[in-house]
Amino acid sequence: MSAARVRTRPELRKQRRQRAHGCWNHLIAAPLWPKHSANLGTLLRTCDAVGACLAVPRRPWVPDALNQGNTLRHRQCVHWVDGRVDRWLARQRAGGSAVVGVELTDESIRLADLPTARKRTVMVLGHELDGIPPEGLELLDVAVEIPMVGTGHSLNVAVAGSLVLYKLAGLC
pLDDT of 122-151, one tens digit each? Predict the structure, then answer.
């Protein structure tokens, strides 16, 4: 077997994203109750990889957090959520978006069973210790769990969000 040929950056750019980015008919990652700042930049990088936007609450520390872990040089799609995040989420749902939460509930489906998003979908991530609060859980169309074999009971927000975004985007 011959050695694999690594594709060049121009080849990769030509292969990817054939059309302009648009916000109104795709995925939005929404870590609405963030705790750790570095996770936001990492999640923003994943959003770019799958063609999604990021919706974050407007907090003084969030702009700096978005720069951590994100090494991309171009402008990315960030939606700022002002006021109560549960009201923002309710508006998204009322506007026709599907709302998928990454949370362990009695009704959660396994990540492997999560279908590809067929309409505008908001993927909600909760606080790393407390998860999605009750007012957010009430607004979910579906909750998804990521099965784990190890001793931990959850992944960090950036890892969990990345796994679910790839699945919703139909890239895995």
Answer: 999 998 888 999 999 999 999 999 999 988
Q: Do the beta carbons of residue 125 and residue 99 sit within 8 Å?
A: no
Within-domain flag for 161: yes
Q: Does 79 map to a domain?
A: yes
Domain of residue 60, residue span: 21-168
Q: How many helices (H) and strands (E) does the chain have?
A: 6, 7
**Would you say residue 33 lies in a domain?**
yes
Give every strand in the sheet of 109-110, ordered side by side: 78-81, 53-57, 27-31, 121-125, 98-102, 142-145, 109-110
Predicted pLDDT at 77: 86
Q: Note the residue count of the chain.
A: 172
